[in-house]
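In the previous chapter we treated chains in isolation. Here, by contrast, the input contains three separate entities that must be folded as one system, with a combined length of 1021 residues.
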Amino acid sequence: MKVSRLMSIGIALLLVLALASGALAQRKVTLWWTVEYSAEEKAALEAIVNDFQKETGIKVEWSGYSSTDLWAKVMAGIEAGNPPDISQVLSHSLVLLADRGLLADVSDLIEKYKGDMIPSGVEASYLVNSKAGKRSYYCIPWGLYTLTINYWTTDIKKAGYDKLPTDWQGFWGAFEKAQTVTGIPAVGWSLSDRAEFDVSWPVEQFIMAFGGRLIKDGKLDVGPENRKAVIEALKFHTKWYLEGKSPKGVTEWGDPDNNTNLQTHKMSVTLNATLSIPRWFYDKERDKYFNETASANYPQPGPLGTPYPVLTNIYPMIIPANAPNMKEAKAFADFWIQKRNYDKYIRGLEARFFPMYKSTFDDAYFANPKDPHIFPTRQHFFGPAAPVNWMLHPGYAKFVIGHGWHKMVSRVVVDKWPPEKAADEALEALKRAVERY
Amino acid sequence: MGVARTREGWGREAWQSYLFVLPFLALFVSFILYPLLSEVYYSFTRYEIGLAPRFVGLKNFAGLIQDSDYRQSILNTLIYVGMGVNAKLALALLIAIFLNREFAGRSLVQSLFLLPWAAATISSLLSFRWMLDTDFGVVNALLPLVGLQRIQWLGQYSTAMAIILMYHIWKYLPFWTLIFLSGLKGIPPDVYEAARVDGASPVQLLRWITLPMMKGLYIICTLISAIWTMGDFITVYLLTGGGPGQSTNVLATIAYRFAFRFGEFDNASACFVLLFPVMLVLILLVIRKLEASAYG
Amino acid sequence: MTYSASPKRGGLRRVWTPLWSYAVAALILLFALFPIYHMVLVSVKSDEELAKPILVSRAPTLQRYLEVVQQRHMLVTHFRRQLLNSTVLSLGTAALTLAISTTCAYAISRLRFPGRRTIFRASLFTYMVPSSFIVIPFYTLMVKYGLVNSYLSVILAETTFASPYCIWVLSEFFKTIPVEIEEAAIVDGATRFRIFRSIMLPLTAPALVALATYAFIFAWNEFLYVLVLINSNRLFTIPVGLSWYLNQDSIPWGMMMAESTLFSIPPIIFYYVFQRYMVSGLAMGAVK
């Protein structure tokens, strides 16, 4: 009988597949992590995995993803009840997940190590859990980072500057001048929905620079001063493209595109969430790393003549509350966060992130004053600093997850709306997101 | 239609019949009926990742109607369905009439014509996407040869929608052409003969015989194709991902975005439920027409 | 306009001037075949030729096919596993769909019982509903049952959507079988199930093969449900695996086209082998 034979084959194959993917008796932990930037990163991860396996005998099954994929998959896994044991999420999702009680409480781990860690990072991991009605540590701060400013020193020199001016007008004016001399567009950052933090973070930083403090004491404030700050920030963010001082393609750039475009010198300066661009130069064109490019500290004072905080963020490692191998996951996290192992891995990343340990943060590698990239970026942490707004309120995080700032930018750049109208629409959406929450 | 009676009689008969239809019925109730009803329910709740559903009345619908991205997706779906279905079926009918003629090599042409439908959807979508790449695609490379500028095909709304429509027509044209061909073959040749004897021209044959006889089939096909096209996901998802911005989303892609990007299952459900009345009317129309032809 | 006597049709028949026909046919074929040709072309173009707009490769290579099959590139490390997944999904769907639709079609077409018309309407309804419309509650339902990331959930979904067409076609087929055969078997003392198994199924064997193929291809092409229900790289089917290429910074198009071509071969073969059945099935089902 054709039908029963087909059925038998089908069922047999199904059984084989089910068995093959079934769980085995051995202790294991599933790790989902990013492997997208360099071979060293992959090697560093493999090293730590091997060390852990050797020391504890627990098997580590790891999968590598690009960061946008990883984030979506982790969320899906948590919801579906089959999450990885350890992974990372983007910081805006972190706040939401913690608030809904979807992440494991890792206070035991943090308490052990926090004495040696940079306080702002530790504080950022102390999150609200509305479901359980408490605050606790719901992630392991993996690394610290800020929005770095990477630029070509050659363009600045051609414009007649020895060093970049340190006040707001002078700083940005130098790049405008550079364009008139070199013909290369001054500024390039993504204005597209395809990028993630590459859009949200610069907007947030500019709002800060123009005096906007949208979250005050944990509450949203969209009063007239903040509205003005948002409008000015929006104008500043988009004016470069509208005035022809950006590469045309910025309206299509995904997260990697500002990297590749600065690397191929399609503009003079960009803002980037990690030190991945200098990393690339160091690996591929080391001469340019030292002699033709640099990273900058933020120009202070800001456009209003007053200092403004530089936004910092953490890179969170999480253990889902419904992780199938909780004990093993905590064991691995514990292993990884120990200074000796942690330092090994973070060196493998070669300063894409700043380390959480004070001693490492101050050591010769990260605090070398001669380094044109790591050192100026490190200075970001020593001036006025603040955590990014979305870490402070889950409703706000929701707005950012929903690409609220992206929409605002695209209104001005694609739909040609006046900035006031776009800002009002965005602030309305922000209010709704916070209220609805 | 004759039915053979077994010795057990009608009572026993019914019981056995139910056993026969039970598998399908189980599938239908569990995986069509129950999800549909759940979706209606979810659309009236607040239901997000990590939260249990909580009734909130019409809030989601109000929110969606105010959402300009959602409104745009409805417009896009209307354009996609309206233009896609009509262009596709009109072309399909014409090509079917053409292929109904006899000419040397016709069966070869008919066979080859089937290829877009036969090739895997993912494969042809990716081919289209690369063909239209702004910097390295074949199409943009050939344009300068005829004196035209390169176009950002998938990067601007107008051309992106045009490409989406074109892919859809390209892919499903063969299927509907085959259906219309079968329909054409169902028209008895004597009708044509009689008309020709009376001196009718080909155009008159077309207008007074072919088209009227195909009308019923054409209408059913329009309805069916419209319903299916309304739910299309993969074309937009792979060609533009909804971009630029969120301007080329259709119903299915924006619902997917709500559910799996924002974790908002309530809004995602409401996206579809808002159109349930339209869907149901169309489906019932089709069922009525198909039943009539099956039992009439 | 030329007139020719056509013995088959027993009368005068108008024949299009061949030039016209061939021009139109050529246009139709160009439109239909170019994207497929393009896919194969890109898969065999050599690396230097990839960025160039040439339409014929001067140094074609099968290198990429080897890369894919031997899993030599980071993006195809799971190719064979994904191919297996696609196959399991499709075979499972075909088997389950046949089992379910044969029984249902037999009952609808050959048996009389209250609710018969409702079942028929239910199957038509299922046929009409676009699968994307219920993917979200389907997902939440599978979360509840813990079936996310397992193929059972996708097979159930695919079977649900593939069954109606099979039920429809099979009903028509069953109706063509003379009642006398069944009546003879009944006289011999056969039960319904016996009749179904030993008489009806063998008589519709060609249709069964064609419909199994239909269900196979239906599941082979499935994208949305796999995207939603399956989370891990190792468990993807080829379509979803291929779509992940698009997230990369620099997409290896040549290799992607090679994998696409490979993936297209089974459905193309099946469609051509069963072309006759496809058409006749559609003709029976849709044209009345």
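Residues 148-272+402-436 of chain A form a domain with the D-Maltodextrin-Binding Protein; domain 2 fold (CATH 3.40.190.10). Chain A has two domains: 26-145+313-361, 148-272+402-436. Compare these points with the single-chain example from earlier in the chapter.
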